[in-house]
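ok so i was messing around last nite and threw this chain in just to see what happens. nothing serious, just curious
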Amino acid sequence: MEEYLKRDNPFSQIYKNVNNGSNQKKYEQFKRGKSNLLPSLIDIELTNLCNYKCCFCPTGTNAMQRIKGMMPDNVVDAIIENLNRYKIGGVRFIRWGEPTMHPKYLEIIERVKKTGTLVHINTNGSRLDDKQIKKLLDINLDSIKFSFQGADEGTYNEIRENGDYVQLLKTIRRFYELRAEKKLPFIQVSTTLTNETKDQIESFKSDVGNICDYVNIGYTVLNHLSVGQMNISNGQKKKIIELQKREVKQRKYMKVCNEAFDKLSINWNGDITLCCSDYDNFMIVGNILDNDIKQIFNCRAADIYREIIANGEYGKIKCCSTCYEVIPLDK
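result:
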């Protein structure tokens, strides 16, 4: 297979900006901004439905209690109207479902792209075929991330029920081939690990390194999960408990929370939350059908959350109380 020049991530400058500073400095900026600030990023949940049953995810374990559905046209229209009104750095189609399950996902991505913002999508890759890939290339999608867990077929299947490791590799390779010399999109492969060996990790990098622009390897965090609340079988619960026991980590709270200070996340029904990990409406600050994104981003409810975070009082907010940087211990 022909190899092509590696691309740079179009979102890199945005990520650099939002990850800079501290919660205190960001909060001071809000106080100086006098309710006139805009988010650098908007995350969009086209659906909170997924065709996978991942043991770490509240969607896959049925721990999520809010209603499941697909983003309706009026919410999409409101988002497009806001993106035309305000200059937003980037839009990402991610959150608590598989975006490609939405029957109009390609049309919606194209509409968002036409507003002039950068556009990214996360996907498990299971539903992509040549027709969809070619359409994403024609749209000039800026960035795509293919999500794995584990470092080989065995560890992938341990975490991702219904997934197909070998087929996903084939899909990414096909995407890479069809992109060929095109500048976009930036192709990223991301996985998280539990207790894989260095040899397994290096083998994974070898599998995917020549069919993408960047490989991101993190850690699957499971200890925050409440197994007793999951609507899954006893066998699945036992598997998660065993994986939790294998976690060997140190934890510390985030130095900077770009979720609350730099981004808004829009659920499929238009509800807007300040946190990417908010799967059950714990930090809702408005709805895009009721107010525009500038009003919501600068509203009093959002300011209360930001002040708590700036003061380091993480235990007062459900999503923040279990949100850590994960640092692997030396073995």
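not much to say yet. Confidence is low (pLDDT under 50) at residues 327-331.
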